[in-house]
Amino acid sequence: MLDRSEDHTPNATRDVEQPAAAAPPTLLVIDDDTVHRMIIGRVAHRAGYEVAEAASYEEAVALLERHAYTLISLDLTLGRHGGAEVLHVIAAMDLKTPIVIVSSSTETIRRETAAMANLLSLNVCRTLPKPVDLAQLRAILIDVRQRNAIGLTPAGWSA
């Protein structure tokens, strides 16, 4: 047993390292529509996420190069560049981050894009039409947060 009677340092009785608080999950919203970015971000924030936003392909690539995210929300139309190009960048970076495609594109295009992403070994866990159903989005956010909290890997999540 340690004798701390002569130890006058302020933290003398704190020799056991305290566990760090778990960092909140993070979401990258990639959408050129300001209103949709704001809506998705607000729902995510209320679901306990820290949110980063990218309004363009270039912003998305810059953020993906600097930070890791728990989840990515991706629109398929981003001005000059499409969401498919972002998916190719994510694949080239070998990221396994779950992706939710949120787009006003047809269901067929959303599904085909998800299938293409899966061929690139990416994990599109869901596709949602715009305007997004907020309850459905919140359920996805909570599901991803809970899976992440218990260490479940995204492999095998289905769209």
From TrEMBL:
Response regulatory domain ranges (all copies): 26-145
Species name: Rhodoplanes tepidamans (Rhodoplanes cryptolactis)
Record flagged with keyword Transcription regulation: yes
PANTHER family per the UniProt record, alphabetical: RESPONSE REGULATORY DOMAIN-CONTAINING PROTEIN (PTHR44591:SF3), STRESS RESPONSE REGULATOR PROTEIN 1 (PTHR44591)
The keyword Ribosomal protein appears for this protein: no
Protein name: Response regulator
Lineage: Bacteria, Pseudomonadati, Pseudomonadota, Alphaproteobacteria, Hyphomicrobiales
PROSITE patterns the record matches: RESPONSE_REGULATORY
Annotated positions of the 4-aspartylphosphate modification: 75
Keywords: Phosphoprotein, Transcription, Transcription regulation
